[in-house]
Amino acid sequence: MEQLGPTAYVILGMIRGAPKSGYEIKAAVDGSTRFFWAASYGQIYPELKRLSEAGLIRGADSPTGGRKRTVYEITADGEDELLAWLRQPPETFEMREEGLLKLFFASALPPAEAAEILRAMRAHRLAVNAQLQAMEPLAAEKDDPYPLLVLRGGIEFTEWFADWCERMEEQILASAPEQRSS
Amino acid sequence: MEQLGPTAYVILGMIRGAPKSGYEIKAAVDGSTRFFWAASYGQIYPELKRLSEAGLIRGADSPTGGRKRTVYEITADGEDELLAWLRQPPETFEMREEGLLKLFFASALPPAEAAEILRAMRAHRLAVNAQLQAMEPLAAEKDDPYPLLVLRGGIEFTEWFADWCERMEEQILASAPEQRSS
DNA sequence: TCTAGATATATCGGAGCGATATATATGCGG
DNA sequence: CCGCATATATATCGCTCCGATATATCTAGA
């Protein structure tokens, strides 16, 4: 009995309440949890097979015209499995931020260019912030308060991060020796 | 001419100024960038070979007694490559946070248990915060201000996150219908 | 009608990660 | 000074994950 990875629970959670095809699961992930937990087709389709064999989900053919399509719904066992996972303390927390890595090595650059790294990071964070803001109205419509709460957390986080970038940029420029404009 | 991935630049950055063995590179990463950019032996040793073949680093045998050991130093080409990378805008930003994923699906749980997720997340953030705080004195000794700046960013981030968890926990408990203590 | 884009499933290559295997060297308690 | 735990050093395996791509059908619009 091999235990399930977090990706399996993303699927279980996403089809809970509303059966979905693999394609729809991917779209749901991309439109909600993508910023803190992504999933690719390469994970989803094999995982659907495994979950189906384990009896945690059930697939039903539901073709659209001549195009085959399988929608999956969660089983009672699947619900139990999802609940049990939700009750376990979370384990994984990972972050990969290339901007911070560059900033870490920024002493190889003159201060003005180090500040440029922070400016680029800030611009990127603000762009993500705008995307999240755009997603908010849709999330606010729903009954479920948790996706909205998480989304607003993302909005607040990107704002905090953008602000940190701004402050650090100022700090670097303030403490830098004067640069000649060549 | 295959282009290098970020892991290659971690290596280049880490040996800049002070030649290191693969083992020492791993230790340097674990003691500094680990929280926003990790690297494993499985990446480091093959990458050292590739960088060496590409002429961006140079390996020199430097055995300790009967134990063989190769220290790598950066070449002039490697320095150029590193600088060119530092001047490119950062691309990757990824986050995988199981706690947020659970919170996203928390409507399957009673509010008290949803709050429990946030409590666990907060405890974890505070533990990481303590680790980062412990690393600060060492980083503050060095001449290079950027690693310290990044480290302090991590400290501030974990504090912000822990605070957010606390606020969201309160919010959930405040808006929840009264729970009977069974 | 032709085409672009959306729906739907599947798979491949590469990157990343944790764990482990294999040595040798060092330091510490007994 | 012996034995043992830990540190140094390199290498590799299996797994997950991700981006990209291949294939096919359906829909909407020029």
Folded structure, characterized:
- 2 copies of one chain form a homodimer.
- The first copy, chain A, is mainly alpha-helical and 182 residues long.
- The first copy, chain A, is 62% helix and 8% strand.
- Chain A contains 7 helices and 3 strands, in the order αααββαβααα.
- A two-stranded antiparallel ribbon of chain A has the order 1-2.
- In chain A, helix 2 (22-30) packs across helix 3 (41-53), helix 5 (98-104) runs antiparallel to helix 6 and helix 6 runs antiparallel to helix 7.
- Chain A is elongated, with a radius of gyration of 22 Å.
- Chains A and B meet through helix 1, helix 4, strand 3, helix 5 and helix 6 of A and helix 1, helix 4, strand 3, helix 5 and helix 6 of B.
- Chain A binds a DNA duplex (30 and 30 nucleotides) through residues 5, 7, 21-24, 27, 38-43, 45-46, 64-70, 96.
Question: How are the secondary structure elements laid out?
Answer:
Two copies of one chain form a homodimer.
Chain A: H1 6-15, H2 22-30, H3 41-53, E1 57-61, E2 70-74, H4 76-86, E3 93-97, H5 98-104, H6 111-141, H7 145-175
Antiparallel strand pairs in A: 1-2
Helix pairs in contact in A: 2-3, 5-6, 6-7
Chain A binds a DNA duplex (30 and 30 nucleotides) through residues 5, 7, 21-24, 27, 38-43, 45-46, 64-70, 96.
